Structures are given as C-alpha cells and as structure tokens.
Amino acid sequence: MTVRELDAAGITDPGLRVAYSRSRHLNARYGRTYFLxxxxxxxxxxxxxxxxxxxARRADDIVDDLGDTATTAERSAALRALEERLDAAxxxxxxxxxxxxxxxxxxxxxxxxxxxxxxxxxxxxxxxEVTDYATYEDxxxxxxxxxxVIGLQMLPVLGTVVPRxxxxxxxAALGVAFQLTNFVRDVGEDLDRGRVYLPADLLAAHGAHRDxxxxxxxxxxxxxxxxxxxxxAAALTRxxxxxxxxxxxxxxxxxxxxIGAAFVLYGEILDAVRxxxxxxxxxxxxxxxxxxxxxxxxxxxxxxxxxVGAAMRRGAA
Length: 317
What we know:
mainly alpha, 15 helices, about 0% strand
C-alpha cells in the first residue's frame, strides 16, 4: 500500500520515499482512528496526511513520552532543535530527519502556510511549562496551536468546493473538537504527565478540582463531582462538533468520506466514555473494533460513489 500511495503522489526520490514511509508508519502505529480515516482518501493525497501526522507525533513524543527520562530542559532543547531543522527544511536546505523532510515536501507541494507549524510548536513548548488552564478561554488559546492549526494544515490537502477561507473556521473547529475529545478520554494519562486539560472553571462549577482528580487516580475511587464535570466537558465538546459540521459539505467530495469517518468515530469516543461510566480518570475508553470497521466500510462505499460521480462529471465535460 505504501508503494501505491507514493507512486500515485508522484514521489520518486528514494530518500523522500523513505521519509514518507516513516511518517506513514507513525500514523499506522499511533493514529488508529486517524489512520483508518486516512485510508479513505485518494491514494495520491495520503502521503501528505501521513507527513502532517508524523511531524506532529514526533513533536508530541519529545514532549510527552513517559518512557523517556529526559529532563524538561533536555526536552525543550530537543523541541528547539526540531524547530530549527524544520525552518531549514522549509527554506529549502537539505535535512536528514525523515519526518521533517516529508513535512517540508508536503508544505511546498500544497502551499501550506509555514506559520501553522510554528504555532503548533508554540503550544508544544507550552506543554513543557503549563500544567493546567484556569478557564476555557485559556485552553482555547492553547488549542489554537495544538489543534486548530492541524485542521488548517489539512485543508489544502483535502481540497474544498468553496473558497478555502470559508471552510477554514470549520476545519479549525474540527481540530479543536478532536482534541477536546482526547482530553475527556485521557484524563488519567494526562494526570500521569502532570497535566490537567479540563479547565479549572469547568471543574469548579461541578465541585471538582485538580486534587480531587489526583485522589481519584491514586485510589481508583469514583466521585460524582468528577462524573458531572466530565459529562459537562463532553457536552461542551459536542457543541464544538456542531461548529465544525457545516465544513464537511465544503470539502472536495472525494475527501468527505475520510473526514466524515473521523467525525463519526471521534464523536463516538465520547459515547464510549459515557458507557464506561465517565471513568476516564482510571481507564481509556475506545470505540469497539467492530464499530470502527463498520464506519470504515460505509466510508469505502461513499468513496466509490464520489469517484464514480467525479468520473461522470469529467465525462460530461
């Protein structure tokens, strides 16, 4: 499948093919829902999505890998070095790191604004210093770089049937909705990293707070105040999905099945957390494999219909 994607995208340079293959491996290993959705794109567009994911994953690993004993200062230096390599690659200099090379090639091929990558790295640096957020507005400022820009990076690859600036707010909202979903699902894992992403004002509105979350994580005991706060966070996240939804129809028809599948599956993570009793302080909820397969199969059918429709329109022209 990798060879087919690279050939379809016209990527012939051997070193560049290796770079994209490395990014694809990261997407397949860690992305799961994201990778499944990516497979619904036309083959020629998939390498670009792998490149975007691979770079984001590389930066995230520098910041968050619990198995790495690096100090905060060492992580900061590694992140700074990654940014320097990216700046060099975007300027046309040769670089050896595969994910950086693939990203720079994708950014050039799809004319992606370089500031989107720099904003992303600003939020990654914040993760080395900031351990919680007082208000939802504070969190939204962080998520501009950590999530909204991911949607904006994807937009040129996906293509639109409206002016890109019209679709951009919805693409940004979808990136935020996906990340908020992760925050609801990963409360326990984030606590292990010393962070609380649920805003303090949201927690306080339900009588919860950071120390209560830590107590629940440590003891394995549940608390109705945490359950109430998580349900409220999920409701807030649903609102952001509603902000994003109109953007689906603005995408190139052949890209809609990919983003539609991700939209459905990520939304159903919230359903999984609810079914598990809002216990994400203690466990990570997941959409059942059978359900993921069913959504993917439906996506394949929509891909086929979109391609047939595109072929008919070309024939009519």
